[in-house]
Amino acid sequence: MTSVSSDSHMWNLVFLQLLLEENGGNVINLGACTPDELVMSECLRIRPDALVISTVNGHGHIDGLRLIRKIRGHSVLASMKVVIGGKLGVHGSRQAGSRAELVANGLDAVFEADADLGRFLDCLGLGTPAPQRVAPTEIRST
Amino acid sequence: MAPPTGPGRFTRFVRRASSEGKLVVQPRMGFGTVEQMRAGLDAVRTVDAATVGTITVDSYTRVNDHASALLALEKGADLNGFPLVAHGAAVTRELLAGIAGDDFPVQVRHGSALPGALFEGLVAAGIDATEGGPVSYCLPYSRVPLAQAVDAWAECCEMLAGISEPVHLESFGGCMLGQLCPPSLLISLSILEGLFFREHGLRDISVSYAQQTNQQQDIEAIHALRGLAKEWLGDTDWHAVLYTYMGVYPRTRQGAYGLLEESARLAARSGTERLIVKTAVEASRIPSITENVDALERAARAAEREAVAEPAGIPDSGIYEEAQAIITHTLTLGSDVGKALVRAFALGHLDIPFCLHQDNANRCRARIDDRGRLTWADPAGVPIPRARDLARNRQRLTARGLIDMLSYNERRYDHPSRTSHPR
Questions:
Q1: Is A45 exposed, middle or buried (CB count within 10 Å of its CB: 0-12, 13-18, 19+)?
Q2: How many other C-beta atoms lie within 10 A of the C-beta of residue A22?
Q3: Which positions in chain A touch B56 (Cβ < 8 Å)?
Q4: B178 — alpha (psi -120 to 50), left (phi > 0) or beta?
Q5: Which of A124, B149, B216, B270 would you call most buried, defined as having the most Cβ atoms within 10 angstroms of its Cβ?
Q6: Among the four given CATH numbers 3.30.450.20, 3.40.47.10, 3.40.50.280, 3.40.50.11810, the one describing domain A11-123
């Protein structure tokens, strides 16, 4: 699990780690403000079943797109399952074009802030809890 | 060079408002383009209240990725703040011409662990107020090693201290992940960062506290903060700043304004000089200019109404005693404040609950008790009185339990009739 390079938010990562672990996942949490190179090198070292990108600062569309292009461009990581979720743009509302662009560039799934957690866990092949909303976190925090 | 005498422009403005019985209100506001940023500052300046302007930088600038900020500007992509370094000092100076002045100071807010380039840029642009700190902008906001952030901030403070007109520096130590950090720890960190600023030559500073989950507890905490600031920073030109709740924010307009107005009343009742507000749309997106103006006016009116009320008694649950113990212990751990901070975190004697930074022990835990007070679930290595007894409060935390605590204020304000003290 990781954030993206420009996103310093942590609560989303703390929450998702607990959730994935409770549902049988084994989580390595790379934390916030993760440079693309660190995400790539850790994925090559660990070879995870899936990479979960969680970001809420509104730069997810830009940073997530750059990261997935690098991942899909790498011979070893091209087939790794990668999903992204959180608050991906600064406008709050869903931006269908951006979402489609993320998927077109290789994201296996995109979960906006009000997505269903069951569908998220399903996507990772983990257990399904009662439906609840994904952790909301504020966009700006300084 | 002669040491600066008297407070700088920012603090003079705050003191003047305070002497007139007015709370200074300030937004969090940053836009990518000069035009938007100017419109935002102009709108804040004309609000019917004592306002300070804010330029919040974008998150590329925060992590010193100025190339990405520049690229976004060239492409016309949305940025979540003003890329001050990418725009450059000349453009920023021009932005502020005819706006910033004695009656409208402007502060740069940023979140950068290594703010050297930003501070050089803002000083070159003629800006004389900013904020942050070696701990508060390193551990929650970066992957920078704490020792490196401490060195960078020491250098930055000395650079600011060398300017003839005093520059204001606010410690962000009163926030620390926004929620689930016990009040005494928040206060200790803000005072310790204030001492760090002072050690590196700054005299014009503010200490901070973020609204938490219980008004009575927050009043005690701010009272303790002010007492400790008098003791430890009495020879500086200090004031206190309150942040409207920095955690998961109510989603309804009514709930969001309810929590905002509660923070304004808290500021008024506790003698806090300055308040940084949140807006009605905080939970979902970056607010517009109008939404910021609404929030500032609401906060100012709520504070004015409260100012005529009788001051309440100050409760004492031991926040002052805990904070004093943390500060005095930390200062024994190094020959200067910076070294003491690095050593304290390495030992886990300072420890931010849930913070994932590699230099944070992440062993201590907080919880919200049945009265809605933010208390220790386990202080771990933090040297507070009765730490061993408190460690027994620790329980296994589930994802649901965490969300319940994180969304405590959201539930309380969005559904005030449903429950007054949710778990």
A1: exposed
A2: 15
A3: 140, 142
A4: left
A5: B149
A6: 3.40.50.280
- pLDDT greater than 70 at residue B422: no
Whether residues B354 and A10 touch (CB distance < 8 A) is answered with: yes
Question: For the sheet containing A50-55, what is the strand order?
Answer: A50-55, A81-86, A109-112
* A39 interfaces chain B, CB cutoff of 8 Å: no
Binary contact (A8, B142; C-beta < 8 A):
yes
- What is the DSSP secondary structure assignment for residue B172, as one 8-state letter? -
Residues of chain A numbered 41-60 and touching chain B (CB < 8 Å): 57-59
Length of chain B in residues, anyone? Answer: 423
Identify the residue whose tokens are 């904070």: B323
Q: Tell me the pLDDT tens digit for each residue of A47-105.
A: 999 999 999 888 888 899 999 999 999 999 999 999 999 988 766 555 667 889 999 99
List the domain range (segments joined by +) for residue B36: 9-307
Residue B125: pLDDT over 60: yes
pTM: 0.92
Query: Please, is B332 exposed, middle or buried when counting C-beta atoms within 10 Å of its C-beta (0-12, 13-18, 19+)?
Result: exposed
Chain A contact for B399, CB < 8 A? yes
Nearest-5° Cα angle at B191, B187 to B193: 115
User: Which residue, among A48, A95, A91, A74, has the nearest Cα to B281 in the 3D structure?
Assistant: A91
Distance, in Å, from the CA atom of A95 to the CA atom of B120, rounded to the nearest integer, reads 37
ipTM: 0.86
Contact B59 A7 (CB under 8 A): yes
- Of B307, B333, B363, which residue constitutes the final position of a domain? B307
Question: Cβ–Cβ of B283/A138 closer than 8 Å?
Answer: yes
Cα diameter, chain B:
62
Q: Which of residues 53-112 of B touch A (CB under 8 A)?
A: 56, 59-60, 62-63, 65, 68, 72, 77-81, 109-111
